[in-house]
Design a protein that fits this description.
The protein contains ten helices and 14 strands. By secondary structure, the protein is of the alpha/beta class. The chain starts with a strand and ends with a helix. The relative contact order is 0.14. Bound molecules: adenosine-5-diphosphoribose. Adenosine-5-diphosphoribose (APR) binds next to helix 1 and helix 4.
């Protein structure tokens, strides 16, 4: 694989481009945005760090010129607008759905065989929009949320236990937000389940902090995160480029796994050169499955909101 395109050169997009470039695994990264000069400037800045970080990946920035993205192997979509004062949640949903739809259409016209990773929020809905707009099979369109949420869960566990993040493995399913389903039974430190290391109360409070991990950062900075989201998408891209078969949680469209279908929701998958190679199923107990079902219901209601907003704008 030779080429990764990142759409949207804001905080998250630029971080994805930098993280991918630093992995030195593809020939070229193309950063594209509608704001004149933004992609060009950020791409040049990243390229100027190459002699320090020692990567050979070329980083190129363009303004709305999709011909520069032609024949990409992977596309990461981060474009969107933040909520401004006076803008309702519905307004934001409609605007961002239109942005994701139009950038997807422009991109796939140039790269019909690519794999698309969506980061734009609300994630589960925007992944659906990109899937519809691309016409690609669902194993080539999926969302980045679980890798970020799992990283947050692992970071908080490391802080709590004083353990190395290298030894902490975690599993998390469901939507990206309040209804995400961290799975302590499948979370371990050096192979030891955390249920053996921490009290139920401590686990519960770390789970709650993970669920509101995005909000905690917004509270602190007044804007959403970019270092961990950018690194998370780059890790997914690496699993695809290297065909490594890594098992990572991604927002995917299940066909019956965990009793779910017709939506995009976070589940563990095996990632490789063709995208999603397998949705991995593990046994969930009754309460875990119930939490996943609640999360799925929540995502379905977001889809309903999207349909309503799009119908209104067509009417
Ligand atoms: N085509 C290309 N780029 C666009 C378009 C478009 N049609 N519309 C908007 N953009 C660009 C903006 O110009 C901006 O540079 O998308 C970029 C978004 O960047 P930021 O506002 O900095 O947002 P960021 O923090 O990067 O988050 C991007 O990721 O985690 C999610 O919730 C977050 O949905 C948001 C996305």
């Amino acid at each position: 694989m030779n080429k990764v395109t990142v759409i949207g050169a804001g905080n998250v997009g630029a971080t994805v481009a930098e993280c991918v470039a630093r992995k030195d695994m593809v020939k070229e990264v193309v950063l594209i945005d509608i704001k004149e000069g933004l992609s060009e400037g950020k791409a040049l800045d990243i390229a100027e760090s190459a002699p320090i970080h020692l990567f050979d990946t070329q980083v190129k920035g363009v303004t709305n010129d999709y011909s520069a993205t032609a024949n990409s192997d992977i596309c990461v979509i981060t474009s969107g607008v933040p909520r401004r004062p006076g803008m309702s949640r519905d307004d934001l949903l409609g605007i961002n759905a239109n942005i994701v739809r139009s950038v997807t259409e422009s991109f796939v016209a140039e790269s019909p065989n690519a794999i698309i990773i969506v980061i734009s929020n609300p994630l589960d809905v925007m992944t659906y929009v990109a899937h519809q707009a691309s016409g690609f099979p669902s194993h080539r369109v999926f969302g980045m949320a679980g890798v970020l949420d799992t990283a947050r869960f692992r970071a908080f566990l490391s802080m709590e236990l004083g353990a190395s993040v290298k030894d902490i493995q975690a599993l998390l399913m469901g939507g990206h937000g309040d209804t995400m389903v961290p799975l302590p039974r499948y979370t371990s430190v050096g192979g030891i389940p955390i249920t053996e290391l921490l009290s139920e109360d401590r686990i519960e409070s770390i789970v709650e902090r993970t669920k509101s991990g995005g909000g905690e950062i917004v509270q602190l900075m007044g804007t959403s995160a970019w270092y961990a989201p950018g690194a998370a998408a780059a890790e997914m891209a690496e699993a695809i480029v290297k065909d490594s078969g890594r098992v990572l949680p991604c927002a995917v469209c299940p066909s019956g796994e965990y009793g779910l279908s017709d939506l995009f929701i976070g589940l563990p998958v095996r990632l490789g050169r063709s995208g999603i190679e397998q949705i991995v199923t593990v046994d969930l107990n009754e309460s875990e499955q119930a939490l996943l079902d609640v999360s799925a219901e929540h995502i379905r209601s977001n889809f309903e909101d999207l349909r309503r907003v799009l119908n209104q704008s067509e009417a």
